[in-house]
């Protein structure tokens, strides 16, 4: 049986400086190509098993390429070059020379590429209907770019507009799965790659629309998150933490977030000008960082009590801390408060309640509590920023027991109305 063509990178003996020249060795269909491209490496920096440089950020001598990315490109040129044809070694050598020797006037170097387009998304240059993208969106773009670059190197799959197809999709999803990425992270990666490619088609950089195939999709799964009921929030707010001011302030900011429904990036950075009076009542007026929507939120009695408690601060709120530290401390708060119930997470029934609490629990609590109280969904969506009722209903955390209690309350109201009508007859 003919040997499967394989591209290998090997090292020649050390030169006077102790470094060794990297060369490509490719045997295919009776041909043998040995290709040297002028790059040296210290033997201790070379991974013999992976045939890559250990330092992922190492660049070529002229700083034109990341060295591992160059190796992946050269391997891709060889492997894709023998699909359906058997070229002479000189043909493959010329293609690799052309890639390495491209200059600033070369169309491949100066023209558009998927990586360059992704960089324009990350920089914020490409907007959505003229609106700036949120910081989290830009971070997501950067994460996807890193993933596809790592994929290109490790799987030797050349990445550009014309290689984004179903073959890429299957290999990329398999790669991310083996990296132990969460299902929803993989789904977000695929969604963002489709955004990149959609923009490329719109800008006439490519006519490849294979990413629009119905199989080129990866569905998210419903996340297993908790919310705190109004009674639990009240109990937590009343829990005595006067002996630990740090935890008390974290708790108070958490309670504030649970009654205004904003994301942590918004409720932790409230400024004095965000607190306004309207017809004698106080409101939060803020343009949200993620969606850039203007929202007005009335301040309920608990929020007003927190304002009074921290009236000496310019924004009437506790001093904010990082999201990471906040998530760490709020778990400590909830543990001290005895929130050790198990069974609230269906996928992890043994996890205690306090372990599942985070800064985002506030927002879910706000949406879920007001939904259960019968507040109009369409009005809640104006605060939470959900564009569709379907998305909103997936977001709230209402258990089957909560739904049954809501139905029971509705039935009691219906029964009272029925009895009142009978009495009136």
Detailed description of the structure:
The protein has 425 residues and is mostly helical. The chain has 3 domains: 6-109, no CATH class; 112-212, DNA polymerase, domain 1, CATH 1.10.150; 230-407, hpI Integrase, Chain A, CATH 1.10.443. The chain contains 16 helices and 8 strands. It has helices spanning 67-81, 89-100, 107-110, 114-122, 135-155, 166-178, 183-202, 230-238, 245-260, 264-267, 301-309, 323-336, 359-372, 377-384, 389-395, 400-424, and strands at residues 6-14, 20-28, 31-41, 46-47, 52-53, 275-278, 281-287, 294-298. The strands form 3 sheets. The chain has a 3-stranded antiparallel beta sheet with strand order 1-2-3, with helices on one face. Strands 6-7-8 form a 3-stranded antiparallel beta sheet, with no helix packed on it. Helix 1 runs antiparallel to helix 2, helix 1 crosses helix 5 (135-155) and helix 9 crosses helix 12. The relative contact order is 0.06.
Quick synopsis:
The protein is mainly α and 425 residues long. The protein has 16 helices and eight strands.
Descriptive key words:
single chain; hpI Integrase, Chain A; 16 helices; 8 strands; mainly alpha; DNA polymerase, domain 1; three-stranded antiparallel sheet; 47% helix; 425 residues
């Amino acid at each position: 049986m003919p040997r499967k063509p394989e591209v290998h990178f090997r090292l020649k003996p050390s030169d006077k400086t102790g470094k060794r020249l990297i060369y490509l060795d490719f045997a295919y269909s009776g041909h043998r190509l040995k290709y040297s491209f002028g790059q040296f490496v210290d033997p201790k920096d070379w991974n013999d098993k992976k045939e890559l440089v250990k330092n992922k950020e190492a660049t070529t001598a002229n700083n034109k390429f990341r060295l591992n990315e160059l190796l992946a490109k050269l391997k891709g040129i060889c492997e894709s070059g023998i699909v359906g044809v058997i070229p002479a070694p000189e043909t493959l050598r010329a293609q690799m020379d052309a890639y390495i020797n491209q200059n600033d006037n070369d169309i491949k170097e100066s023209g558009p590429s998927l990586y360059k387009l992704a960089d324009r998304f990350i920089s914020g240059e490409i907007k959505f209907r003229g609106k700036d993208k949120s910081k989290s969106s830009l971070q997501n773009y950067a994460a996807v770019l890193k993933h596809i670059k790592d994929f290109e190197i490790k799987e030797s799959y050349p990445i550009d507009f014309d290689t984004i197809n179903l073959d890429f999709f299957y290999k990329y999803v398999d790669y991310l799965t083996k990296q132990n990425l969460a299902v929803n992270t993989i789904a977000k990666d695929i969604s963002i790659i489709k955004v990149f490619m959609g923009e490329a088609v719109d800008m006439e950089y490519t006519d490849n629309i294979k990413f629009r195939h119905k199989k080129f999709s990866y569905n998210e799964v419903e996340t297993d998150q908790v919310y705190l009921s109004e009674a639990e929030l009240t109990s937590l707010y009343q829990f005595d933490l006067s002996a630990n001011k740090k935890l008390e302030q974290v708790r108070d900011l958490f309670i504030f977030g649970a009654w205004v429904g904003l994301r942590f990036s918004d409720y932790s950075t409230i400024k004095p000008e965000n607190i306004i009076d309207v017809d004698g009542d106080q409101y939060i007026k803020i343009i949200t960082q993620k969606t850039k929507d203007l929202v007005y939120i009335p301040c309920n009695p608990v929020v007003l009590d927190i304002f009074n408690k921290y009236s000496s601060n310019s924004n009437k709120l506790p001093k904010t801390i990082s999201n990471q530290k906040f998530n760490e401390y709020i778990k400590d708060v909830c543990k001290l408060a005895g929130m050790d119930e198990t069974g609230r997470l269906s996928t992890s029934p043994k996890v205690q309640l306090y372990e599942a609490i985070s800064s985002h629990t506030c927002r879910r609590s706000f949406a879920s509590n007001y939904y259960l109280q019968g507040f109009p969904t369409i009005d809640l969506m104006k605060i939470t920023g959900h564009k569709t009722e379907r998305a909103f209903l997936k977001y709230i955390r209402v258990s089957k027991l909560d739904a049954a209690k809501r139905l029971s309350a509705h039935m009691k109201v219906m029964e009272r109305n029925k009895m009142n009508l009978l009495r009136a007859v």
